[in-house]
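User: Can you model how zinc ion sits in this protein?
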Amino acid sequence: MTAALRLKPKNRAAALLAHAREHRYAIGAFNAVNLETAEAIVQAAELENAPVILQVSENAARYAGLEHLTAVCQSLREHASIPVILHFDHAETLESALTAVALGYDMVMLEGGDLDLDGNAKRLKLLSKTAHALGVAVEGEFEVTQKGEREATHLSASALEDFMKVSGVDAVAVDIGTSHKQTEKTAMLNIPHLRDLAHQTAAPLVLHGSSGATPEDLRIAIHEGISKVNVATELMLEFTRGVREQLSDPKLYDARKYLGYAREVMTQRVRTLIQNFGSSGQVL
Ligand SMILES: [Zn+2]
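Assistant: Here's the modeled complex, given as structure tokens:
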């Protein structure tokens, strides 16, 4: 057994998220798509002395190359002064989720929208068994957070308790009114539904599509049981704003100038989000 394996605490991701739920803060789960965005996320967390979830989605892996982007994130995790949970987000198949486990991710989310709830829970059980044996946490998708304009797809909260028992997952994604890829903060959160869900399980609840929610609403949701807040679109907007600002100078040609500036701009935004989620200074 290598030193790295021997030292890896058992399911550290689950322990960190359980602490967040218990103490009513959330760990920010920020999406990295390249070197600069991954660096911005880890640097912001270090400046805030906060645990952080560095996320690679299956989509981002397709863009940057799964092995390459994973290696960048693993290197940042190893050298960070704060706990970095490396999370594989939105795995579309059991096979890709298991690949992420094998690659050394600390946590994996497997989508469930292609199956009914029972089938979803049973497939997650297969993943949980393998992942847990290797100290890897699993996020299941109880309710699907849609893309773009949406219709409510809430399930009965009472089904959650059974779903958690059968699936064995460590954290669970719920739908409380947000959508993926929202560029405006217009989401109306369904807090009563969140309360019902939180009543069914002590497990950390996960919010997808949080870019569409206001900071105030996010704080309420965190207080009611959301312990992992996924942020992608808002950071993409910020990073791109930084690039655009720099590229207004037609003489600029050095990619390090505008990418470095965008990285700095994104770092500041991640810090603000971490502060709002209440995870600053929460390094255990
Ligand atoms: Zn998502």
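A couple of observations from the model: The chain has a mean pLDDT of 94. The chain has one domain: 12-277.
User: Helpful, thanks.
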